[in-house]
Amino acid sequence: MNKLTDIIKDPQRIVLQNAIPPSHLTDGLQLKYGQADILVYPKTTAEVVEVVKFANANNLNITTRGAGTNLVGSTIPNGGIILDLSLMTNIVELDKQTFTVTVQPGILLQDLQQFVEQHDLFYPPDPGAKTATVGGNISTNAGGMRAVKYGVTRDYVQALEVVMADGSVLTIGSKNVKDNTGLALKHLFIGSEGTLGIITQCTLKLIAKPKVSQTFIVGFNTIEQAIANITTVLHTLTPTALEFVERKVAQWGEQYSGFQFPLPNSQAYLIIMLDGADLQTIEQQRQQLLANLGDCDFFVAEDSKQTNQIWTIRGSLVRAVEAVTQQDPIDIVVPINRIADFINFTKQLEVQTKVRMLAFGHAGDGNIHLCILRDDRDDHQWQSDLQLVHQALYQKCLELGGLPSAEHGIGTAKVSYYNDAIPATNRQLMRAIKQQFDPKNLLNNQVYTTII
């Protein structure tokens, strides 16, 4: 077999170089573009296997992608084949007895969540891009707002089917809750951004769907007060979500969404969601928290409409900025007791560089999201200022004991900062793993280019 048309019988699922849509040559930011020779849409594991064998025989790179929501260049191709898994959307099995669901990687997160919730089950990982694919979530170990209580994608992957770089198929993990039978190979693929293998099927852990939830907002006079009370919140209860946002940042979401954020006289907020078996318990937890917080204002969402408006504003912040000016999204994580230090540093850097920055994020796990605004800078000034700001932010992050990525990944955008953060011995071991799994360096070889 020496032709792709022998593998993919449907000609509409093979697109040649000049006809490849520009959207498939970039990532979610659509600012940088690569090039590729062929775009392929497989529907089955068998087709993926044969495409990989074809790539091996012809020494073609493979860039795997799903919905294309990645923000760090992981889906920007470097020649060869783009393997688009967005047609692999089947729900293979829902097993209520073992609380697992098995799906193909192209299913969208929002579709998976809606499906299992119809059966009174719950898939907790909830990153901001609900239209991302589950395979993409696994490849970046996506987190999201509910990570503070429920953990991240890694915590819900039970088993994987992976097509290796030589076309062989690896099945790892199981439906068993406990597994100490050999090395946990599945964890090598979770967060690897497609560099070690191609996920073609995944079995995910589910939990019982919470009966009730409640969202409320605590307002403070300063962002320092808000952040200082994060530990109070975490010592008092276990929130489903715990977000921080300043008034000036919330206003961007207001303008974009058309909704009014509560407590307009406060200057900073903690947005808190609780869930559980009954509303009475949640009310008791909320009252206990408010008693511990001291001087603050609060607002409790009375119904689903108010709840949806609050989370719509929070979820629209990045899009709100993009509607006004080009921006560079930063995804940094620091220990939760250093959030205030990092936020204060961004304010100082903003004054020093005159580059506007909007900071918000997941207060419960130290994951800070920054929008760096281009405003009216020309290309040269924008790139110069952006590099200066990046270097300062990532250096401060490391000083505080943080890391350059919490959930977006490294891709091509953060390689130099990744190298600063990870010891050379660790990177050498990663190179050895990559060499063992993909000796020809065909899989997403544009990612981590300096270490593999």
Automatic annotation (TrEMBL):
Keywords: FAD, Flavoprotein, Oxidoreductase. PROSITE patterns: FAD_PCMH (PS51387). One of its GO terms (molecular function) is oxidoreductase activity. Its cofactor is FAD. Residues 32-209 form the FAD-binding PCMH-type domain. Gene3D superfamilies: 3.30.465.10, 3.30.70.2740, Vanillyl-alcohol Oxidase, Chain A, domain 4 (1.10.45.10). It holds the Pfam family FAD_binding_4. SUPFAM superfamilies: FAD-binding/transporter-associated domain-like (SSF56176), FAD-linked oxidases, C-terminal domain (SSF55103). The keyword Disulfide bond does not apply. This is 2-hydroxy-acid oxidase. It comes from Gilliamella apicola.
